Amino acid sequence: MELLNWLQQKTQLKSEYFELISGDASFRRYFRFKCGEQSFIGVDAPPDKENCRPFVAIANAFLSGGLQVPQVYFVDYQKGFMALSDLGDQQLLPLLNESNVEGFYGRALEQIVRLQTITEFKDYKLPDYNVALLNQEMQLFPDWFLKQHLNYALTVKQTAKLSLLFERLTDIALKQPQVTVHRDFHSRNLMVVDDKSGSFPQLAMIDFQDAVKGPVTYDLISLIKDSYISWPWALVQQWALLYHQMLKNEGMALPSQDEFIFWMDSMAIQRHLKVVGIFSRLNYRDGKAGYLADIPQTLQYIVEAGERHPEYKEIAEWIEKELMQLMVVQGALIQGKRS
Q1: What is the residue-wise DSSP string for 183-216?
Q2: CA-wise closest residue to 210 among 271, 128, 270
Q3: Per-residue pLDDT tens for 39-54?
Q4: What is the pTM of this model?
């Protein structure tokens, strides 16, 4: 295999173990390369589909800023190959429970605040999370979830209402302080590592190559309104207000707690519309049906936001009483239908 030969050449080591360890929701594949006690992660990111330059620039900046992320030892941009430090296999998600989540999420919130202080990237500028990108993401909801997954045709009136919602969510996102945003900061992209510095395990971040300059609540809601695990509203609200205070302690000008919660819930609706579209696209375009099972929880967050904010009551009721019922009727929840 070309990647194996490249790793052996770059590391000057003869492989004793080389195995695929995972693929993710992209076209990247990850391999573990070992020789004796030395271990690396080899990345195969096809250059016609993936760009390694953002990952390298952001990884180097985050490392310099004191965050735990994979170190890039070698990279070949033409081939799309990288050799990274090995952070192990322990994702945060399967470890989380009611007794440890506050400790882990406390650490994670500290990381979010710290990464916002990192604004300089060598030979790279973070893209802005602008109107075009926010709307492009939300459009995945009608294009892939409604049309492809549910075979649901929007009426002219529904299309207009959805457009107004997108516009409103975009306005709320852009009025927030704009900071460095990981953009996929959740329990499957946090690795638990023990750096021997304390009694509580440390967290390392992965999958940050799509980072942007964007709304201050974005990484917060990616974490505490995770599509893969959910927590009682009392805890979610507690973490949101803790984060609000942490930012104020850093000198950031923020609105009242109630307005901040509204910002958070609004940002979450934008993200969850996108995520539902992505999960659907992963099935129909990429043949990855496993993400379909996470759609109901993701939609449920929007339903709950509608219960807290009258402004979102209409879309929440539409999702709960029509779309989620349609999923059950069609069996779309448990079947990875192919177009």
Answers
A1: S--STTSEEEE--SSSSSPEEEE---TT-EEEET
A2: 128
A3: 999 999 999 999 999 9
A4: 0.93
Measured between alpha carbons, how far is 283 from 276 in angstroms, rounded to an integer?
Answer: 11
Cα–Cα distance, 306 to 309 (Å, whole number): 5
Looking at residue 330, what is its pLDDT?
79
Which residues, 6 or more positions from 177, have their beta carbon under 8 angstroms from its beta carbon?
215, 216, 252, 253, 254
How many other CB atoms sit within 10 Å of the CB of residue 184? Answer: 21
pLDDT tens digits along 95-151: 999 999 999 999 999 999 999 999 999 999 999 999 999 999 999 999 999 999 999
Calculate mean pLDDT across residues 47-68.
96
CA distances from 230 to 29, 186, 203, 267, 339 (A): 28, 11, 19, 17, 31
Q: Is 97 exposed, middle or buried (0-12, 13-18, 19+ CB in 10 A)?
A: exposed
Domain 2-85 has CATH 3.20.20.80: no
- Minimal CA–CA distance to 281: which of 268, 271, 295? 295
- Please report, as a single letter, which amino acid is at residue 165: L
Give the whole-angstrom CA distance, residue 183 versus residue 173: 13
Is the torsion defined by CA of 221, 224, 227, 230 positive or negative?
Answer: negative
- Tell me 319's DSSP state: I
Cα gap 221→19, rounded to integer Å: 34
Q: Is the pLDDT of residue 199 over 70?
A: no
Residue 152 above 90 pLDDT?
A: yes
Residue ranges of domains in the chain: 2-85, 95-330
Confidence bin at 331 (pLDDT 50/70/90):
confident
Answer whether 2-85 and 95-330 agree in fold: no
**95-330 falls under which CATH superfamily?**
Aminoglycoside phosphotransferase (APH), C-terminal lobe (3.90.1200.10)
Q: Could you tell me which residues are beta bridge partners of residue 287? A: none
